[in-house]
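Hi R.,

Here are the chain sequences for the assembly we discussed:
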Amino acid sequence: MILKGKAHKFGDNINTDDIIAAKYLDSCDDDFLGSKCMETIDTTFIKRVTRGDIIVAGNNFGCGSSREHAPVSIKGAGISLVIAKSFARIFYRNSINVGLPILVCDDTSKISSLDLLEVDLQNGLIKDVTKNKMFSSEKFPDFMQEIIKKKGLLNWIKSSV
Amino acid sequence: MGLTLVEKILKKHSQSRKLEDFIYAKVDFCFGNDITAPLAVKEFLKAKFTDIFDRNRIGFICDHFVPARDLKAANNVKLLKEFAAKFKIKHIYDIHQCGVEHAFLPEAGIVRPLDLVIGADSHTCTYGALGAASFGVGSTDLAAAMKEGKCWFRVPKTIKFVYKGKLPRWIGGKDLVLNTIGKIGVDGALYQVMEFCGPVIKKLDMDDRFTMCNMAIEAGGKTGIIAPDKKTIEYVKKLNPKRKEVKVLESDKDAKYSKIIETDVSDLEPQVACPHLPSNVKAVSKLKKIKLDQVVIGSCTNGRITDLEIAVKIARGKKVSKGVRAIVIPATHKIYQEAEKRGMLKVLVEAGFVVCMPTCGPCLGGHTGILDKGEIALATTNRNFIGRMGHPESFVYLSSPAVAAASAITGRITHPEEI
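And here is the predicted structure of the full complex:
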């Protein structure tokens, strides 16, 4: 699958309170949570996102709480993929479990805001169309690829019964 | 090659005999709260699951936005109660029956040493203080575990933290763990277990141990753990005198650690994490000029009885500074009752503290203590991210109960020995 979108850059240690403020956690609604994505640190983010865009971040993206509302909010905002140097562990497993694509890539600092990206998700290849550069990402372990293929944990469970 | 304590617990619960990189392991208990469990229930129902694995091993602990702060919060609690009734789930607790989940579950004897526990809350790592392997997960993980009784894990590496020296007065678990997070950073233990040990840990009481393991997540840790010892056994037996035997385990002498970090605590000053990261740690003496609008003593990190004892010791006969809103939140209903019975709440109220019902409340900007623009708080909680306690332009400092109580009296960040 090829994902195309423009990059929205974030720094290191973007935490789950940044992604979706705790005051909204009494909602489970994807669209509502999406409309509040990143509000704490960037009130204009949601207005600048076009469906399919890609978040590009530094280290430890998604640190802090276990709220699955965070990846749900990112999906709800129309983001198709998050690329970061590293992810906090609960955010990482939540993303895989809810089917939000993520990639671990050391070179995120070489990508600029609003660069057009084309990403071959299967092979983890990131093409920065604006800069005409290619970056590779870490391969997911086999176990996780199975869950990703089934589009989430609950589908994986159902298919393995 | 030997195994670490967490590896041993994972192996015991794993489906395969070998400890592979990834395991699908049986859990002893899984739970969520009033903000994460409703999402788990939604996913469970969406997947059209019709049965649960064990009605005695699932918990819903309502503690975040309760007693309901608004209609949505009320609806979430009702939804959990209805789901629990339908599936005859035993461990469903509304706020008047529990308190903050990570203080309540050990106190109620529901989580025990050497258990494998998952919770849809990042501070699930707290139970490592009992010698349980306990991991924060998401709502979908909880939904899957409610159905299957299992969860997938990547077997983690472990960093060993050894604390040596003589613990100075006023220094406790909070100072040790803040100091450590300050040293290694908010991703210093990413994906890894933080095993706390050494002569200083042996002497720490259980409440301090809970505080330390609670904050492992703030260094990115998969969990924190302390091998169960005499103090753990005493704690468990005191809660449940009928229990004859408490099993213990520890890491093998030749277990493999990714790193060993030693700290001599003898000269440690009380530690304070400055806005906006738990790793932005300074000694209390460097922050004397910071004036405060609010002080919060409570949460799953520092709302236990010994935390309140310290606050009482400092506040007895004193008055809270006029400009400071000082809030005390006993972490559970039981702790509240004990503090009440022993006259501790009276001392605090007379000093000018307001005592709230057990809840997570202001820790995550839920209710009972939201900060406005420009306000500054010192809290015994665990996170000080931007906007964590309210307005995106408010400021949260994190400290021990001793520093928090002393600072409430003076109105600025203060070393307890000044009082």
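The domain at 2-160 of chain A is CATH 3.20.19.10 (Aconitase; domain 4). Chain A touches chain B at residues 13, 15, 17-18, 21-23, 25-28, 40-41, 59-60, 63-69, 72, 86, 88-90, 93-94, 97-98, 141, 143-144, 147, 152-155, 157-158 (CB under 8 Å).

Let me know if anything looks off.

Best,
T.
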